[in-house]
Specification:
Strand content of chain A: over 45%
Number of strands of chain B: 10
Radius of gyration of chain B: 13 Å
Order of helices and strands of chain B: EEEEEEEEEE
Largest sheet of chain B: 6 strands, mixed
Structural class of chain A: mainly beta
Structural class of chain B: mainly beta
Helix content of chain A: under 10%
Shape of chain A: globular
Radius of gyration of chain A: 14 Å
Oligomer: heterodimer
Order of helices and strands of chain A: EEEEEEEEEEE
Strand content of chain B: over 45%
Number of helices of chain B: 0
Distance between the termini of chain A: 39 Å
Largest sheet of chain A: 7 strands, mixed
């Protein structure tokens, strides 16, 4: 059974870095038929895909949404079978419920973490 | 960057009604499209992938079709548990953009 368990602070101050970790069980990050994603939801924006990491051709790749491309980093940690999100220079507009999620190649995102509200506030 | 536009943004229908949601891509994406149901306070649920393949366990009242730029999700007989916001998402190439969502309510 594939499970994604995320952790991280619930409040981040403006201009600081939002950092979350997603621990994966039941699969390995280096699975070449999966990608590892970060998605957020806010009432004003709905679901917003942020970025992902994936292992292909013996190396790690990352893809990012244009809206956050200059501020985001998604990193795999194969020793702990987890991946992270770092979003810097946050503003109150980054307040959202953040999810980590597993996408199957060409078959959608079937596995999600429970999600966690991250509030950007001083 | 390919944009995904859903319509309507919201709808209200009676129990048992047939409901259709449309998703349009600004460029062709083949059949690389999925649909999700996101109920308040719940995690998003995958309903459909490859534009028309129903995910295992999804009720048969849901169906989907389309390719290229125009896609539809249909609920043949609206049920109380279908109240949610529905999103399409493209995945042909990155970024994996979501549509703006369609909020479905019971009249």
């Amino acid at each position: 059974q594939i499970r994604l368990q995320q952790s991280g602070p619930g409040v981040v101050k403006p201009s600081q870095t939002l950092s979350l970790i997603c621990a994966v069980s039941g699969d390995t990050l280096s699975n070449t038929s999966a990608t590892w994603n970060w998605v957020r939801h806010s009432p004003s924006r709905g679901l917003e895909w942020l970025g992902r990491t994936l292992y292909r051709s013996h190396q790690w790749h990352t893809d990012y949404a244009l809206s956050v491309e200059s501020r985001i980093t998604v990193n795999p940690d194969t020793s702990k079978n987890q991946f992270s999100l770092h979003l810097n220079s946050v503003t109150p507009d980054d307040t959202a419920v953040y999810f980590c999620a597993r996408e199957r190649d060409w078959a959608g995102i079937a596995h999600w973490s429970q999600g966690a509200l991250v509030t950007v506030s001083s | 960057d390919i944009q995904m536009t859903q319509s309507p943004s919201s709808l209200s229908a009676s129990l048992g009604d047939r409901v259709t949601i449309t998703c349009r891509a600004s460029q062709g994406i083949g059949n690389r499209l999925s649909w999700y149901q996101h109920a308040p306070g719940r995690i998003p649920k995958l309903l459909v992938y490859e534009a028309s393949i129903l995910e295992s366990g999804v009720p048969s009242r849901f169906s989907a079709s389309g390719s290229g730029t125009d896609f539809t999700l249909t609920i043949s007989s609206l049920q109380p548990e279908d109240v949610a916001t529905y999103y399409c998402q493209k995945y042909n190439v990155d970024p994996l953009t979501f549509g703006g969502g369609t909020k479905v309510e019971i009249k």
